[in-house]
């Protein structure tokens, strides 16, 4: 393989061909890691600002310590890493539907893999986040009905642009109510979206939580001609 491009792994999955690639930017010499599903880019280490802000903004809404956190969507691990940087975090469960992505972290193929798997507070769980969020027993099979202080989600492109149609239920009133049942009082739900703030989803979020907001995160688009932006939605459960 060229020093400038390498396909690190390539796996057929039930939802399509999943590939992990590393490419080097000649202008900076920095290695960029990318995960693709078929021809579609799922994530890139070139754009991590909003994934990090998902953790920062979500945890900033909590005024307590000894936090138990769930992250939906492992990806390249930047949200999980940002969660673990908070000394107030006691435990972190990261749920991902793709066993291959978890394996890439466990094998050290991704830059943050060793850090995440080596932190005793962090557990990577192969599972369907959406099914677990709807289930009465919740996310932790070893502790049914366990509640958490924060649930941070970065899976779909947005509440309207989904990776799979069955995910849609989460973004409806009943779906958010079921997810909120897995939060402690004053717990936080935070969601990453690639799209601008959506007025309709804002209304659904406001109905499900005591307080809610949509915050736009801007970052360099890496093309040298301006900024790009993502949205972080935050809902805080009533006391």
Q: Care to give the gist of this entry?
A:
This protein is of the alpha/beta class and 239 residues long. Helix content is 23%, strand content 36%. It has helices at 49-60, 78-84, 99-106, 113-117, 129-134, 173-180, 199-208; strands spanning 5-13, 16-24, 31-37, 40-44, 67-72, 89-96, 122-126, 148-153, 183-193, 211-220, 227-236.
Structural write-up:
By secondary structure, the chain is α/β, with parallel strands linked by helices. The chain folds into 2 domains: 1-46, no CATH class; 47-236, 3-Layer(aba) Sandwich (Rossmann fold), CATH 3.40.50. It is 23% helix and 36% strand. It contains 7 helices and 11 strands. The chain has helices at 49-60, 78-84, 99-106, 113-117, 129-134, 173-180, 199-208; strands spanning 5-13, 16-24, 31-37, 40-44, 67-72, 89-96, 122-126, 148-153, 183-193, 211-220, 227-236. The longest helix is centred in the N-terminal third of the chain and has 12 residues, at 49-60. The relative contact order is 0.13.
């Amino acid at each position: 393989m060229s020093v400038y491009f390498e396909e690190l792994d390539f796996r057929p999955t039930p939802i399509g061909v999943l590939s992990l690639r590393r490419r080097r930017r000649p202008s900076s010499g920095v290695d960029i890691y990318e995960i693709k599903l078929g021809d579609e880019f799922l994530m890139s280490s070139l754009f991590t600002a909003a994934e990090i802000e998902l953790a920062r903004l979500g945890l900033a809404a909590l005024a307590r310590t000894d936090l138990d956190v769930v992250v939906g969507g492992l990806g390249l691990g930047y949200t999980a890493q940002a969660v673990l940087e908070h000394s107030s975090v006691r435990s972190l469960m990261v749920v991902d539907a793709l066993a291959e992505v978890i394996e890439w972290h466990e094998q050290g193929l991704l830059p943050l893999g060793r850090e995440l798997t080596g932190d005793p507070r962090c557990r990577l769980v192969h599972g369907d986040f959406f099914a677990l969020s709807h289930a009465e027993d919740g996310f932790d099979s070893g502790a049914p009905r366990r509640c958490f202080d924060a649930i941070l989600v970065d899976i779909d492109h947005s509440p309207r642009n989904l990776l799979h149609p069955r995910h849609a239920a989460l973004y409806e009133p009943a779906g958010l109510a079921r997810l909120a049942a897995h939060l402690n009082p004053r717990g936080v739900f935070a969601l990453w979206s690639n799209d601008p703030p959506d007025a309709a989803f804002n209304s659904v979020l406001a109905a499900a939580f005591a307080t809610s907001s949509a915050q736009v995160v801007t970052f360099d688009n890496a093309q040298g001609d301006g900024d790009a932006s993502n949205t972080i939605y935050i809902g805080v459960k009533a006391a």
